[in-house]
Fold:
Amino acid sequence: MEIRYKEKPLNYKRTIQRICIAAICGAVFAIVALLVLFCFRSQIRKMLGAREENRIVFETEATGQEALEEDWNSEERVDMGQNSKYAEAFYEKAFEANNFLVGINEVSAEGYGGKKTYTEYACGIIMYQSKKELLILSTPNAIRGTNIVQITFFNGQTVSGEVLRTDQETGISVVSVQKKVLDKDTKKSVTVAKFGKSSTLHRGEYTAAIGNPLKEHRSIVVGQYTAVGGKTRLTDREYTLLETNIVGRRHTAGFLLDANTNVIGIISHREDEEGEAYTVKALGISDLSWLLDALCNNRELPFMGVQISTVSEETSRAYDIPSGAYVEYVYLRSPAVDAGIQRGDILVSMGKREIRSAKQFTEALMELSPRDSVKVQIMRYTNGAYKRVSAEVIISERLERN
Structure:
């Protein structure tokens, strides 16, 4: 006996109903997931190490003296040191910076009688604001190991600020102030500083030092650049050093401005300088953009552990050595020393990037992240000639956090 099975006809109506139900359930699930992510976005971003606002991007403004005198030619600019009228106009223009300049008074728990505050103000500038907070950039070594500081604004209001991060090498810190603690007058007068391009400066141009260059808070001194091509070398980086003829006081701090009141440099001095008076020097702001980005956006800074300088094409031809980033020093317990990099080596490539200067080395390093492994090509002097050597470097993190 043959048994046959009769196929059941397809119920199109029920199939369409099931598809619609599945689609509705999927849409409801997606909406619920989005709502959960939206409601807990702050906590999620905090766990990931990001700030509540969008990533902060630092933009630079055009710099130069045309803001005051657009029709001056280059010959007239040579004699600007004799032009007291121009210097006075520059001073008046620099006075506008007071609205983004703040005093920083560090609070210490040490001392007889409990907490005390230091009487000599350090200073900072307001470099970013969101709906909820202000971010303040401090001068070097303004904050030494504390998490809470007192911030004094232009109108005299003083509030507490939280130290977010500090770069232990330059001494620069970023402080957060919640806008809800500010009064109406302060909120109204707050101005965010703009950054200029220190890489376009020329010797002889005017600048204004603001902050406390004379050991007096909010003092302003106008002068000129005596050198704009100097270098100061720290770990993995080479900074432009701006030198002026402004005579300041030892252990004071502040910022250099251009004629458009853009911040051009952060005044820096050596701890071992002797005497009470010294000529003001500053780190060029263009070379610090990557550091500000890392401090404000909670990014890890890659660390290799070398001190470098540029072997230019001219030096290469004159002394018959390869051009690149010359290793002047290798730090102990660093990825560089672990990889076998030595003093006197010349770094010529990192990964797929060719290196012909200290700046290109820094740019290549900043594209990496801690725990990345990168192949570095080195020219090493061996037996009377330079030979190419390869090294595998595992990048680590340099920046210390508060």
User: Anything to note?
Assistant: The longest strand covers residues 219-234. The radius of gyration is 28 Å. Confidence is low (pLDDT under 50) at residues 46-50, 65-82.
